[in-house]
Structure prediction request, 203 residues.
Amino acid sequence: LNLGVLISGTGSNLKAVLDAIAEKRLDARVNVVISNVATAPGLEHARAHGVPTLVIDHKAFPNRQAFDGALVESLRAHEVEWVVLAGFMRVITPTLLDAFPLRIVNIHPSLLPAFPGMHAQKQAFDYGVRIAGCTVHLVDAGTDTGPILAQAAVPVLDTDDEPALRARILAEEHTLLPRVLQWMAEGRVTVAPAQDGARARVS
Ligand code: GRF
Prediction:
């Protein structure tokens, strides 16, 4: 599995993927890590694992399509087959989607379809849910929509504040994302047409 990972920040999910590869729990290669933020701390994780890094600053482009065009060009140049959005804080356009149809994976810190968009953990905490979690899904044209591949749930405790809940969810993200990528490496993920849209199946 030739991966390209897109990040904007801390990159702890990127680190989880790189660690899983190093520990041979994940049969994949990260061909390139691209950040739209030059100072993203996550770039250090890539460097520490000897993975090529690129900074492509969205502000240098006139519009989203042009930015995504530059992403596609770099991903292709690095022979990327699957794109992983790991804390990539940009809305993507058909330019990127059509270049990697059903080959873009996102990790989102809620049990979708609840709480899409920004600050999902805060949305869940403020709502007062008793079960929260994270979702790995294939990316389509919507925001945090697209066929769901796997989810992990965590309890919300009475003693929690929002950072505590966020940390509990993040720990699950670090397990779930490499596991789903390994399913892909094993060719176990298929997307079947369902009544209202596509649905992912894992065999
Ligand atoms: C994670 O919570 C992820 O689900 C969300 O953004 C956060 C990124 O964290 N999309 P990190 O950069 O991987 O540490």
Observations:
- The CA atoms of residues 125 and 162 lie 6 Å apart.
- The chain has a mean pLDDT of 95.
